[in-house]
Write a structure and sequence with these properties.
This protein is α/β, with parallel strands linked by helices. The chain is built from 10 helices and 10 strands. It binds adenosine-5'-triphosphate and magnesium ion (MG).
């Protein structure tokens, strides 16, 4: 579904990503684990076309999309949930979802009703303004907005950040449901336990470099990874 090949990324003169390569297979959840400042957000932004492309290549569903603009990528089926949520504060929950709606290939698999089935608390707050939602509800709304674009691949940037433990559990169930509905996911996280329980394949990023990768059971049983992740 997604192949990222030898990316280097810079902010001004600072070299942030070094030779980052990763692959996300159709129907799988792949994760990118790393601590603060490791380069997770930069990697997702680069994939979504939000950071100026330099060296490296990105292939999405067999097509070279290196340097493509975010709206083009959204049209091609890439959904992105940024770490800062970016919902419309002045719009109601329903309007936030409606404005994001996009049919792809004439198909409209995700509707407001389906998002409400997934997140019943959003249905209860359908008329409430985005700014009045709690942090957890805003996260749900941000995920709901991305789903309304009917994506094939969902890029999720630290969805558990700042969530209460109960909501983290709900979120895990949500991502499991999305996976069984056929969605492919690339999940950037610091929460190792949450992420490894959900993922099929994992990458560990440190100082802008992928320092470890493997099937999740291999990662869990690796002494080196356990030490690195504190598990
Ligand atoms: N706009 C920017 N300009 C300059 N440097 C930046 C910018 N954004 C991030 N950086 C730097 O790039 C590096 C990687 O940051 P990034 O946000 O990708 O890390 P992260 O793994 O997502 O961290 P976190 O877990 O805190 O979200 C950090 O050293 C950060 O200070
Ligand atoms: Mg980040």
């Amino acid at each position: 579904m997604l192949e990222v090949i030898n990316l280097h990324t810079y902010y001004g003169l600072s070299h942030i990503l070094f030779d980052v390569s990763l692959e996300v297979k159709q129907g799988q959840v792949a994760c990118l684990l790393g601590r603060n400042g490791a380069g997770k957000t930069t990697t997702l932004k680069r994939i979504m076309g939000l950071v100026t492309p330099k060296e490296g290549k990105i292939i999405f569903r067999g097509e070279d999309i290196t340097g493509a603009q975010p709206y083009i990528l959204a049209r091609k089926g890439m959904g992105y949930v940024p770490d800062d949520r970016r919902i419309f504060a002045d719009l109601s929950v329903r309007d936030n979802l409606e404005i994001a709606a996009r049919k792809r290939n004439g198909k409209e698999e995700w509707t407001i009703e389906r998002v409400y089935d997934l997140f019943p608390s959003l249905k209860a707050f359908s008329d409430r303004r985005g700014s009045l939602l709690s942090g957890g509800e805003q996260k749900m709304l941000a995920i709901g907005r991305a789903l309304m674009t009917n994506p094939e691949l969902l890029l999720l940037d630290e969805p558990t950040e700042g969530l209460a433990p109960l909501l983290v559990n709900n979120l895990r169930e949500t991502i499991e449901k999305l996976k069984s509905a056929g969605l492919t996911v690339l999940l950037a996280e610091q929460n190792v336990k949450f992420t490894l329980r959900l993922s099929d394949y994992g990458y560990i990023i440190d100082d802008g470099r992928i320092c470890y990768q493997g099937k999740v059971n291999e990662l869990i049983s690796s002494e080196e990874v356990r030490k690195m992740c504190g598990i």
